[in-house]
Specification:
mainly alpha, Nucleotidyltransferase, domain 5, Helix Hairpins, Serum Albumin, Chain A, Domain 1, 3 domains, five-stranded mixed sheet, 68% helix, Nucleolar protein 56, snoRNA binding, NOP58/56_N
Length: 500
C-alpha cells in the first residue's frame, strides 16, 4: 500500500503523503466520487515537500527523463532527502504514475514503488486539484508553466536531426523530378518557337540546354558570321565541326524572318529555360551531397537518384530500413502488383530499382534474379545507414562489388564471395583505420608532451648547476674563515709567549 505519492508538475516535483484513503472499496462509486470533492480529497493526501525546477531547460530535461524512465539526479536527491528510511515496522512504498520510472527509482534508491489503481486514482485527484494543493507555494502560474513546458517538450521530440535529414532528400528528389518535366516542356516550347526562324538547328543539336544557349547566342541567323564561330564551339564543348555545321545551316536556312519584338520574347523564354536547367544541375549536386551524409551506403550501391527515390517513396529512411527485401523490390510498382493479384497474372519483378544500371546490364532471363538480389543488398545498406553512428560508404562499395560478382556469376559461373566474409572484411578494415587514427593521435600527443617536457628538463639542469656552484662557493668561504681563525690563534699564542 502506497504511503507517499510522487507527482511531477511543470514547476517541479511534489511529494504527497497519503493520510487516509479507502483501499478495500476503492472501486466503489461513492469512494471514487471523493476525488472530485476538494474538502474530502484534502483529508486523503497532504503535501510533504516540493522541489521547484531551476529553469525551463532543467524542467525540459526532467520531463524527458521521466518519459524515458530515467531517474534524474535532482529527482534522486529530492526523494532521498524527503522519504523516511524504511524499517521492519515502518514500511515505505512510493506511488508513481509511470511504470518504467517506478522500476528505475527502485533500482536507484531501493524504495518499493507501485503503480496500482489506488495510486492512479490519487494521482488523478492531485492532478485535478493541483493548483489548489500547490497554491501556498507561490511558484508562479502553473497553467503557464505547463503550456511552456508542453511546447518545449513537443519541440524536443520532433526536433530536426541534421544527421538524419531524409526529409530534405524527399523534397529535393520531388523537386528534381518536377524540374525534369518542366525543363523538357519549356525546352520543347523554345524549339517550336525558335524553329520558325531557324528550323535546321533542331536536327543539328538535340540537347535542350545547349539548344537554348545556342538560340540565345545566335538570335537572328542573318547576323551570324565567322567571328561567332568560337562562341558556338565553346557552347558545344569545343566541337568546332558542329559549330561550322550550324554556321553553314544558318546561311542556307529556310526559316522565316522574325521581328525584333518577337525575338526579344523568344530570348527571354530561352533565358528562363537556361536558368531552370542550371538550377536543376545545382539541385542535383545538393542531392548528391545530402545522400553522401544521410545514406552513403545506399548511394554507393544503387546511385544517389534511385536511392533518393526509394527513400521518398517509403516516406523516410527509417521506414525504408524496416521494409523486407521483397517489399523494396517492387516499391513503386504497386499498381501493377494489385492488378496482377486481381487478374491472377504475373506479379512485377521490379519497381523503382529498375532504373539501376545492374538490371539493365543483366540478361532477359536474369533480370528478376538480379532485381531480387539487388533489393536484398539495398535493404542491408539502408539498415546500416539508418542505425549506424559513424556514416561510411565502405559497406555500400562492398555490396556493389557483390552485385557485380553476382552478374559475373550469371554470365560465366564464377563463384561469388559469401556475404559474411565481405562484411567481416569491411568491419576489420574500419577497425584498422580507427586503430591507425588512435596511434597517430597518440604519437602527436607524445611529441607534444616531449616538446613540453624538454624546457622543463633544461630548467632542471640549470637549477642543478646553480645549486652546485652555490654549495662550492659556501664551502670555499667556510675554509677561508677556518684558516683565518687558525692563523689568529697562532698569532695570539706567539704574542703570549713573547710577553712571558
Amino acid at each position: 500500500m502506497a504511503n507517499y505519492i510522487l507527482f511531477e508538475t511543470a514547476s517541479g516535483y511534489a511529494l504527497f503523503e497519503r493520510v487516509q484513503s479507502e483501499e478495500i472499496g476503492a472501486k466503489l462509486e461513492q469512494v471514487q466520487s471523493t476525488v472530485t470533492d476538494l474538502a474530502k480529497f484534502g483529508k486523503m493526501v497532504k503535501l510533504k515537500s516540493f522541489a521547484p525546477f531551476k529553469s525551463a531547460a532543467d524542467a525540459l530535461e526532467n520531463a524527458n527523463d521521466v518519459s524515458e524512465g530515467i531517474v534524474n539526479p535532482s529527482l534522486k536527491a529530492f526523494l532521498e532527502m524527503n522519504l523516511p528510511k524504511a524499517g521492519k515496522k515502518n514500511k515505505i512504498q512510493l506511488g508513481v504514475s509511470e511504470r518504467n520510472l517506478a522500476g528505475a527509482i527502485k533500482g536507484e534508491i531501493g524504495v518499493e514503488c507501485t503503480t496500482d489503481e489506488l495510486v492512479q486514482e490519487l494521482i488523478r485527484g492531485i492532478r485535478l486539484w493541483s493548483e489548489k494543493l500547490l497554491s501556498q507555494l507561490k511558484e508562479g502560474d502553473l497553467g503557464k508553466a505547463q503550456l511552456g513546458l508542453g511546447h518545449s517538450y513537443s519541440r524536443a521530440k520532433v526536433k530536426f536531426n541534421v544527421n538524419r535529414s531524409d526529409n530534405m532528400i524527399i523534397q529535393a528528389i520531388a523537386l528534381l523530378d518536377q524540374l525534369d518535366k518542366d525543363v523538357n516542356t519549356f525546352a520543347m516550347r523554345v524549339k517550336e518557337w525558335y524553329s520558325w526562324h531557324f528550323p535546321e538547328l533542331v536536327k543539328i543539336v538535340t540537347d535542350n540546354y545547349k539548344y537554348a544557349k545556342l538560340a540565345k547566342a545566335i538570335k537572328n541567323k542573318s547576323e551570324l558570321g565567322e567571328e561567332q564561330l568560337e562562341t558556338l564551339a565553346e557552347i558545344l564543348d569545343g566541337d568546332e565541326s558542329t559549330a561550322q555545321q550550324i554556321l553553314d545551316a544558318a546561311r542556307a536556312s529556310m526559316g522565316t524572318d522574325i521581328s525584333p519584338v518577337d525575338m526579344i520574347n523568344v530570348m527571354n523564354f530561352a533565358d528562363r529555360v537556361i536558368s531552370l536547367a542550371e538550377y536543376r544541375k545545382r539541385l542535383h549536386e545538393y542531392l548528391i551531397s545530402k545522400m553522401s551524409h544521410v545514406a552513403p551506403n545506399l548511394a554507393a550501391l544503387i546511385g544517389e537518384v534511385v536511392g533518393a527515390r526509394l527513400i521518398s517513396h517509403a516516406g523516410s529512411l527509417t521506414n525504408l530500413s524496416k521494409y523486407p527485401a521483397s517489399t523494396l523490390q517492387i516499391l513503386g510498382a504497386e499498381k501493377a502488383l494489385f492488378r496482377a493479384l486481381k487478374t491472377k497474372g504475373n506479379t512485377p519483378k521490379y519497381g523503382l530499382i529498375y532504373n539501376s544500371s545492374f538490371i539493365g546490364r543483366a540478361g532477359a532471363k536474369n533480370k528478376g534474379r538480379i532485381s531480387r538480389y539487388l533489393a536484398n543488398k539495398c535493404t542491408i545498406a539502408s539498415r546500416i545507414d539508418c542505425f549506424t553512428d559513424a556514416p561510411t560508404d565502405k559497406f555500400g562499395q562492398a555490396l556493389k562489388a557483390q552485385v557485380e560478382e553476382r552478374l559475373a556469376f550469371y554470365d560465366s559461373g564464377a563463384t561469388p564471395e559469401k556475404n559474411i566474409d565481405v562484411m567481416k572484411k569491411v568491419i576489420d578494415s574500419l577497425d584498422d583505420e580507427e586503430t591507425e587514427e588512435v596511434s597517430v593521435e597518440t604519437t602527436k600527443a607524445g611529441v607534444k608532451r616531449k616538446a613540453d617536457e624538454e624546457p622543463e628538463v633544461e630548467n632542471a639542469d640549470k637549477k642543478a648547476k646553480a645549486d652546485k656552484k652555490e654549495k662550492k662557493e659556501k664551502k670555499e668561504k667556510k675554509e677561508k674563515k677556518e684558516k683565518k681563525e687558525k692563523k689568529e690563534k697562532k698569532e695570539k699564542k706567539k704574542d703570549k709567549k713573547n710577553k712571558d
